[in-house]
Model the fold of this input.
Amino acid sequence: MKEASTLLMLITFQVVALSATSSGLSMSLPGCPDKCGDVLIPYPFGIGDACAAASLNSYFTITCNSTFQPPRPMIGNIPTEIIDISLERSEMRAYSSISYNCFMSSTSIMDNYTYWFNLEDTPFIPSTTRNRFTVIGCNTLGIIGGYTHSRPDLYVAGCYSYCQDINSTSDGAPCTGKGCCETTITPNLTYFEALLPDSQSSVWAFNPCFYVMLVEVGWYSFRKQDLVGHLGFINERAKRGVPVVADWAIRNGSCPKYGATAPTGYACASSNSHCADAINGPGYTCNCSEGYEGNPYLSQGCQDMDECKLHQQNPKYEELYPCRNGVCRNTPGGYVCQCGVGKVPDGKNSGCRPMLNRLEQVIIGLSASAVVVMALTCMLAMRFQRRKHRKEKDAYFKQNGGLKLYDEMRSRQVDTFHILTEEEVKKATENYSDDRVLGCGGHGMVYRGTLDDDKEVAIKKSKVINEDCREEFVNEIIILSQINHRNIVRLLGCCLEVDVPMLVYEFISNGTLFELLHSSDSRSVIPLDLRLKIATQSAEALAYIHSSTSRTILHGDVKSLNILLDDEYNAKVADFGASALKPIDKDDFIMFIQGTLGYLDPECFVSQHLTDRSDVYSFGVVLLELITRKRAIYIDSLNEKKALSHTFNVMFHQNMLHDILDYDIVEDEVMVVLEKLAELVIHCLSPRGDERPTMKEVAERLQMLRRIQMQQVITPNPMGMHYPDGESSMPIPSNEMKYQSTDTAKLVLHVDLAR
Done:
C-alpha cells in the first residue's frame, strides 16, 4: 500500500513537470530566464535581483556562473552550487562541504577542515526527513551542533563508527557503526557545524582520514576504499561536495486566516493557489489548487490542468485520472467522465459500466411498480383523510354554533370580531409551541399568537364543552364580543373548527398584577395611589360585567394573575366569563380549586356554585395582595403556609393592622385611608355571600378612597406612570409633602363610607 502511494505521488510530480513544460507555462517572471544551464529556476527564485523576489528575501537571488559548461547556478555570499529547485515540495538540493581530519601519525594531524552553515536570515532549513548526519572512518566520533528557531539553547547530536582493520566491514554495508554511522537531525536547525573532535588515531596506518557530513538520504553507500588514502573519498566521490536537501519557505509571514484580506507582500499571487504552513520552521509556502498547474507565486501562474489531454498523451495517467470507456471532458480545476445511457453517470472511479445487471433491473422494475401502487394508494388514503378532516371541521363548526354566530355577527353588524380557521390558529401559535405558552389554568391553556397582520393576540384553548351548553357558549361569545370597556381585555375572535372552541383576545404586554407585586427579580416601591388606581379600575370592570351588560356575566376566577397591566399600568381584567362557558363538574371543580387556592369563596366548597358575590370575595383577596404585598397563600416566618385572608382577618380584629400592611405604604397621613380600605376588605371577605357588597358598591367606595387619598397627599411619581383620567400625582419642586387636615379627611371618609 505504501509503495502504491509513493508511485502515485511520483507520477503526480512527473505529470505536473511534463504538463508545465508541454503547455509552455512560464515558471519565471516575464522576460526573465527560467534556466541556468540544465537547472530550472522557478520564481520566487530568479537570476539577478530584477528576476527574483528579492524583497521577500535576498537569498532568492541566483547567480549563473558561466565559467562552467554548462553554466552552474550559485546562491549565497559564499557561493553554493544548486543541483535543482522543487516548487511542489518546496525543496532545494545543493552541494555541501565535508568536514575532515587527516593524520600523518598516531600523534599528529596532517590536515583538517570544519564546515559550518548560518541559515538564520535565509529561506532555508535542512530537511529532517531527506538528510542524514553521516560519519566515515574507524574509531571516529562525529558531532553536529547548532541552534534552532524554536530552541535558543545549544543542540548537539552525533554518532561513533568503529573498526579494527579494513576487512572488518564490506562494501555496501549499512552505516550502522562499522566503518560508518549515521543519525537524524533536529527540525528548525538554522545554524550548525559538523566537526571531528581532535583525537589520536589508532588506525592511521590504513585509515588516515575521517569524514563527517550532512548528506541526502540514499546518496552515500559505504565502500572500503573510502577509508584508504589521503582525502581519497573527497577526491574520488565528492569532488563537488555532497548533495544536501533544504526546505525553503516564505519565512517572514504566515497564512492569512480564512476570509481575511491577504497582507501586503503576500507571496501566493495566483488566484487559483492556496497557502500552507511551512513543514519545517516558521513561514508558509504556496501551492496551486487541485486541478491546476504552474507557479503559484506568479499572478497568472496556476492554470487549469487538462487531465483529458494528459490521459491521451500517455496511458499510464489512466491510473491518476481514470476514465475508462467514457467521454472525458475537461472542467476548470478538474474533469468529468461521461458515460452512456444505462451506465454509471460518472466513470472516474470504476469506469463506465452498466449500473444494473439483468436480475437487478427486473427486481428494480418490480419494486418501482410496487412503489407506484403504494404511492397511488397513499394518495387516495390522504385524499380520503383530508375529505374526512374537512367534514369533521364543518361538523365541529356547525356543532359549535358557527352558523348562528355568523348570522348574529351579520345582523348586529359586528365587524371587529373575526372567526379564524384552525390553520390560522396553528400558524399564529407555531403549532401550539411550548415557547408560546403564556399560562395554564383550570379552564385551559393560553398561548401568545401573531396573526398575519403582525397583531399580537392571546389565544385561549379551553376544555371540552358540554353538549348541552353549546348554544349558551355561542350566546356568551356574542355578548363578550360586544363588551367595550377600557379595563377589560377585548375578545377579538374565535375558532370553531375544532372539537374544543378557542377564544382570541387582545394581547397585553406589561405582565400581570401578580408579577408586579410578587416578582422575585426586583422589589420596586409601588405607591399607594397606583395600587388604588389598579384596584379601582379592576372593580369597575367587574361591576360592568355584573350589571351593565344585557345579561349578567360572572368572572369566576378573579385573582391577581388574571389582572393584566398595559404599558401605562392601567388594569385589564382578563379570562372573564370562564364559568359561564361550561358548568363545573366535580373533577373540574377540584382542578379549579387547585388553580385558585386562596381566592375561592368558602360558600363554593359547599354549594359548588359561583355567584356574583363569589367574584366579590375573590376581589377582596386581590385587595389584600395590594395593601400587604403578600401572596394569597404565603409562607410565614415559621416557614408554614398560611391563607392571607384568614391571617388578615385575625390581625385586623386584634388591632394589629400595622403589622401586616406593606411597610412601603404605611404612613401616618394615609392611615385613615388604609384603615377604611381594610374595613372594605373585611366586608368583601364576609363568610356569607349576602353580607358582602356588590361589585358596584366596591367600585364606588374605592373611587371615594382614591379621591380622599389624592386630596390628602401629593407624592412623587417614582414609577413614571401616566394617568389618562387626569388624576396623576405630580412631584413637588421643593420635595416637601403637602397635607390636608387629617381630621377633615377622617370626617369625609366616615360620612361617605357610612352610607
Notes: Confidence is low (pLDDT under 50) at residues 1-22, 577-584, 722-755.
